[in-house]
Amino acid sequence: MSLNSALNSAVLGLNAQSTSLGVISGNIANSETVGYKDSTASFSSMVTTPGSTTQGYSNGVTTTTLTNVSSQGLIEADSTATSLAISGDGFFVVTDGNGETYYTRAGDFSADSEGNLVNSSGYYLMGYALNSDGSSASGTVPTSTSALDKINLEDLTGTAEATTEASIVANLPADAEIGDSFSIDVELFDSLGTSHTVTYEYTKTAANEWELDYSDPVLTSDGSTVTGTSSGGPVTITFNTDGELSSIVDAGGTDVTDNVTLEITGWTTGASDSTIVTDLGTAGDNDGLQQYASDDEDGDMTLYSVDQNGSNYSEISEVSISDDGVVSVTYENGVSEPVYQIVLADFANSDGLTAYSDTVFKESNTSGTYVLKTPGDGGTGTISDYSLETSTVDTTTQFSKMIVAQQAYSAAAQVVSTTSDMYDTLISAVN
User: Fold this and answer.
1) How far is residue 18's CA from residue 319's CA, in Å, rounded to a whole number?
2) What pLDDT band is residue 209 in, cutting at 50, 70 and 90?
3) Residue 304 gets which letter from DSSP?
4) Which of 89, 161, 237, 425 sits between 20 and 30 A of 309, alpha carbons compared?
5) Which of 353, 355, 394, 366 is nearest to 90 (CA)?
6) 3-class DSSP assignment, residue 14
7) Under DSSP, is residue 354 helix (H, G, I), strand (E, B) or coil?
8) All structural domains of the chain with their residue ranges
């Protein structure tokens, strides 16, 4: 082995250990970085080719930095609903300010000044909009990142829900006289969230038989201003001799026991027409309307409950994200609906992704092409809100590696020093 070979090997060793120390220091510096994946300096021997002009020289060393992208960090609780962690495979799809697409496990998202969900590194979370029934707003489920949109909560406004269902549980007095009437006021909401009141009036027409008709709606706020036209009544309600509901028949003779429908048209508020299906009970049961003798002296109707859906206009009070990536909002009126679907990018070889920054990666030939999946679908990991994936760095291990790298660096430096002394000796002998 020549002195040049020894010196060359030592210098390559210094460079390799310097690279290793750089990787280790980067790991330690990011030990608290959300979603960070630790890296390792991989050493490879530089073997000379027999018969080449370099034959006789000692082998050197080269380094390659490998990022352990597929490693799973611990999941820790966080106080923010939009802080997200992936348990399992998959990556959040994010974009930078220029619209370039990247992939990350760093889920420390929060709304910026424009309402976009963005993580601490400035990357925007991507997904696609949903209808209130959970279907894709575009009509198709995106399979390409180019079809995804920024998840934006600023554009979400308040909502109102029209009443479509109502239910009444009551006892109509069997001892009432024919012609006696009893009424129930039911609050209904139109599609604009305005509250109206419709009176359901029950009139006894024969033994075990009643007629139900509806008043036109009036504003609940003043109780007198007519706001639309009701139709669908009257209907005939009959009871069996045991006081249980027997049937409900409309004016045309059709049995509507399971589909008693009130139609309201011509809302003066400008709302769309309403269709309200009222549950009055099950034929042969007393789970809705029933007919038994009154238990009070006045022979009055006993009302147990009136329930209906619908609500007035209200603002967003809460944002939640399910484990399958559905972003939902809950309004002050208690109504909840989905608004966005978060998707995850899955790769055949995630360790082959190219590191773009400490927590952000790009697709490569080695990683394979991404496949967009719903969290939890096809082995892809699930999402946890109020959670963050911690760094995969084990500082104890990194400090141990640092000691080894420092010792190797010192040894290589000693070789350089010794070789330098030998050169001096050789030059002195020649002279």
Assistant:
1) 47
2) very high
3) E
4) 237
5) 353
6) helix
7) strand
8) 3-68+392-430, 75-158+316-389, 161-314
Amino acid making up residue 208: N
CA dist., res. 422 & res. 3, Å (int): 8
Query: Across the strands, what pairs with 202?
Result: 182, 212
Calculate the average pLDDT of the chain. 88
The backbone region for 223, taken as left when phi is positive above 0, alpha when psi lies in -120 to 50, beta otherwise, is left
* Nearest residue to 361 via CA among 352, 372, 348, 374: 352
Name the residue with tokens 């060359």: 8
Return all residues near 333 (Cβ < 8 A) that are at least 6 apart: 161, 311, 312, 313, 314
Is 60 exceeded by the pLDDT of residue 50? no
112, 113, 116, 114: which is closest to 127 by C-alpha?
116
**Structural class in CATH, domain 161-314:** mainly beta
Q: What pLDDT, on a 0 to 100 scale, did the predictor assign at position 47?
A: 57
The percent of residues in the chain predicted with pLDDT above 70, rounded, is 91
C-alpha dihedral, 395 to 401 to 406 to 411, nearest 10°: 170
Fill in the amino acid letter for 253.
Answer: G
Prediction pTM value: 0.64
Which tens digit of pLDDT belongs to each residue from 56-115? 445 677 777 778 888 899 999 999 999 999 999 999 999 998 999 999 999 999 989 888
